[in-house]
Amino acid sequence: MPDSKTAPRADATEPDRVWFRFMRLHQRMLMKMTARVRALGLSIPQFDLLSTLTEREGISQNELAERLYVTKGNVSGLVDRLVQAGLVERRAIAGDRRSYAMHLTPEGRRLAEEGIKTQRDFVAQTLGKLPEGDLAELDRLVLNWRERVRAIDEG
């Protein structure tokens, strides 16, 4: 007999049901990750910014805003707080007196790496427990859904 928690229900093909399940799962995962990141002394936006800088250090605040999908004003305030906390440095960009390159301090890098490890552990405990075929299918479906959203944005 299928497990009632994992077996698809009759209404599972209704897009609204799938949407609500997906959004509730997203909210639950965000709450769990927020608690884990807070234990490190960071908010999710702070962790996002620090982890983004581990991927590409030396980018401008404008590039950072684009990568994080937030406004330049949001990034500016966030960077101000992280500079004040000693986690990020603004460095002048040669030939551009209005822009600064964002760099992690050693403590910022340590916290970012600790947060990334925390995130990887959470993913391993959850998504990592899916069978390989299910994970591949989920990836295919999410990419397909993303392309449909992008088509609307471009339309």
Automatic annotation (TrEMBL):
Cross-referenced PANTHER family: HTH-TYPE TRANSCRIPTIONAL REPRESSOR YETL, TRANSCRIPTIONAL REGULATOR, MARR FAMILY
GO BP annotation list: response to stress
PROSITE patterns named in the record: HTH_MARR_1 (PS01117), HTH_MARR_2 (PS50995)
Lineage of producing organism: Bacteria, Pseudomonadati, Pseudomonadota, Alphaproteobacteria, Hyphomicrobiales
MF terms (GO), sorted A to Z: DNA binding; DNA-binding transcription factor activity
InterPro entries in alphabetical order: HTH_MarR-typ, MarR/SlyA-like, Tscrpt_reg_MarR-type_CS, WH-like_DNA-bd_sf, WH_DNA-bd_sf
Domain HTH marR-type: 15-147
Taxonomic superkingdom: Bacteria
Protein name: MarR family transcriptional regulator
Assigned keywords, A-Z: DNA-binding, Transcription, Transcription regulation
